[in-house]
Amino acid sequence: MIPTFTLPLGFLSLLAIPGLVAIYLLRTRSRRYPVSSLMLWANQQQARQGGLRVERLHTPLLFFLELLAIILLAIAAAAPIIRTMRGAMPLTVVLDDSFSMLAGVGETPQSRAIAALEEELAPQRFNPLANRRYAVRYVLAGTEPQVLKEPARTADEAIAQLDAWQCFSPSADLDAAVNFAAELGGEKALILVLTDEPPPQILGVGRMQWWAFGIPQSNVAFVNATRTATDAGERCLLEITNLSSHAGSTELIVGVDDTTSQSSSAILHRSTLDVNPKATRRIFLNVPAGTPPLKAQISDDVLALDNKVVLLPERRKPVHVDIRVQEPRLRSLIENALVSTDRALSAKATPELVFLDDTVVADDSSEAWYMRIITEQQASAYLGPFVIDLTHPLTEGLSLSGVVWGAGVDEQFMGTPIITAGNVPLLTDTERFTGIHEIRLRLQPDLSTLQNSPNWPILMWNLLQWRASQAPGLERSNLRLGEDIMLTTKSDTTSVEVMLPNGEVAVKAVPDRTISLKAEEVGIYEIRAGTDKYAFASNALNQVESDLTDKATGRWGDWGETTLRWWGYQSFAWFFLLLALGVLTVHLLLVKRET
Fold first, then answer.
1. Can you tell me the distance from the alpha carbon of 70 to that of 64, in angstroms, rounded to the nearest whole number?
2. CA 500 to CA 489: how far, in whole Å?
3. Are 98 and 193 part of one and the same domain?
4. d(CA 519, CA 501)
5. What string of DSSP letters covers 150-166?
């Protein structure tokens, strides 16, 4: 490989060679002086290190070493570089994956970005020997940056990989994606950002370009949608915002998303909404319990993804409870508290939660949780202050201020303390290796006001909520796009099948009864876990992303011709400097030997 010199003016340092030759041409002129003795003269040789008299040129080894050192230093001063990397320049393309990239009728920021990238890669597609060639790698800028696929080896492969760019993320953290792309590509990689918004700062000549393809537009969108269960049925809340600088109107249609019904009777609500600029309209609807999935839709505009929502029934998982407490008063207190929660179902055969007193033996073969209420003869009334483990699920919302708690006085009590009065445990939790919990509650009703305060039903609600969260099923039925949800399965489930809204089926392993699922697309997800089936809906509800008024088109930053021209080259000056240092070292050794 022939080196290229980036600073040819460095060869002007070769003008030092005539000076070196002159030193060896101009010798010192000596005269003869008769003396009585030479014993007092230490150096009897004639000096030849320079002078004014021209003599025949002497070319000892030192001369050639000095000449070689000058040549090597001159080459190093010319800044030689050598091609160390062949092939295409590494290009990391950051793709804005937020759903605002889908705004537009006909053309969208995503389609314009793809066309611009194809134009940039066109010379490489049709001319393999083009001067500017790229090795493309994509980074998706969503809520978290992620690599789209493996690096593309050809331009056609790079364009084909764009089919996986869906733009379904609820937001795009471009700063994090750019930093990730810089670490992923290395110091020499170029960075290209494709988005619909301007850069946060001015970009100059460097390694990054920022291309934006957005257009400021008005948009009316759903920004919130919920469906909750009530005593009388179900209640839906829909929030619609006019994200523009002028007033607008839209038609709202709410119906039952039932594919078997094609008649107009499936429509539950229809109205025309006039919405002021930047204002939000809230619509409340009451529907009967058990109503099939609801589909709400507003008029079409530039962004279709946020014009419709699907809401599944929110089914709170009931807890099957068996009360085996013998003492009538305690049993009545438990029953009344459970009725107030509206979450408990009586079940003798296969209960999920069993209440016991200190005389009943627990069934270790069952998967039920146990709450044992212990009344002791030697008891005391505790006025507090109470020490509460606020991180435990049973203590959420509890406030024991002013509560009198009657319980035993023994400081040794089985289980991990959750609530204590000084050193005396009042409520403890024991988890077995199978995941079953046994909660022990020390309570003497005759000395307590706990059962007469709101803390008693709150404690029972927390217990039922905690047990329901560990039962098979989903936490919720309706999610925002990009949210995660936890699915709890039966103990013998090792994998589940997840049917995505686009019809694809993915098989996911279940390591320990639970699996986290992410709503990455808009629509309904269906999950099959053995014979059990679950479903949840994902909706695009993000006001910031639906706001298109601040979008822009433009290009910022420049890679610079110098960056593109000298890509793949590395400075080779250090090699000649090392050679010159070696030559001067040999020169020094010869000089010392002659002296």
1. 10
2. 19
3. yes
4. 10
5. SPPSSHHHHHHGGGG--
Q: Which of 478, 480, 483 minimizes the C-alpha distance to 541?
A: 480
Please provide residue 114's backbone torsions phi and psi, each rounded to the nearest 5 degrees: -65, -40
| Whole-Å CA distances, 581 to 62, 70, 506, 586 | 14, 11, 65, 9
Rounded average pLDDT over 76-82: 78
Domain CATH code at residue 156: 3.40.50.410
The CATH number covering residue 259 comes to 2.60.40.10
Q: What is the pTM of this model?
A: 0.70
| pLDDT value at residue 263 | 44
Whether 258 maps to a domain, the answer reads yes
pLDDT tens digits, 555-571? 998 876 555 555 555 67
The widest CA-to-CA distance across the chain, in whole angstroms, is 140
What's the rounded Cα separation, in Å, for the pair 153 and 150? 9
Both tokens assigned to 96: 């804005």
Total number of residues shown for the chain: 595
C-alpha torsion angle, residues 232, 534, 345, 406 (rounded to 10): -100
Opening angle at CA 396, ends 392 and 398, nearest 5 = 115
Task: List, as one string, the DSSP characters of 415-472.
Answer: SEEEEEETTEEEEEEEE-TTS-EEEEEE--GGG--GGGSTHHHHHHHHHHHHHHHTSS
Residue 8 belongs to domain spanning: 4-32+46-84+572-594
Distance CA 128, CA 154 (A): 9
User: Is 481 within a domain?
Assistant: yes
Give residue 328's region: left, alpha or beta (phi > 0; psi -120 to 50): alpha
- Compute CA distances 474 → 322, 394, 503, 552, whole Å: 24, 20, 20, 41
Within this chain, do residues 384 and 447 fall inside the same structural domain, yes or no?
yes
Among 288, 313, 338, identify where a domain stops.
313
335 in Cβ contact with 259 (< 8 Å): no
| 527, β-bridge pairs | 498, 534
Specify the CATH number for the domain of residue 345: 3.40.50
3-state secondary structure of 24: helix
**C-beta of residue 369 within 8 angstroms of C-beta of residue 338:** no
Domain count, the chain: 5
Query: Same domain for 230 and 281?
Result: yes
Domain membership flag for residue 38: no
The verdict on 328 and 203 lying in the same domain is no
Query: Do 301 and 326 fall within a single domain?
Result: no
d(CA 541, CA 239): 10
Mean pLDDT rounded to a whole number for the chain? 85
In the numeric block, the tokens 């290796």 are attached to 433
Phi, psi of 119 (to 5 degrees): -65, -35
Q: Same structural domain for residues 211 and 111?
A: yes
Confidence at residue 594, expressed as pLDDT on a 0 to 100 scale: 66
Please give the pLDDT value at position 124.
65
Query: Which range among 258-267, 343-352, 414-423 has the greatest average pLDDT?
Result: 414-423
> 517 has which bridge partners?
485
- 520: CB partners within 8 A, 6+ apart: 168, 169, 481, 482, 538
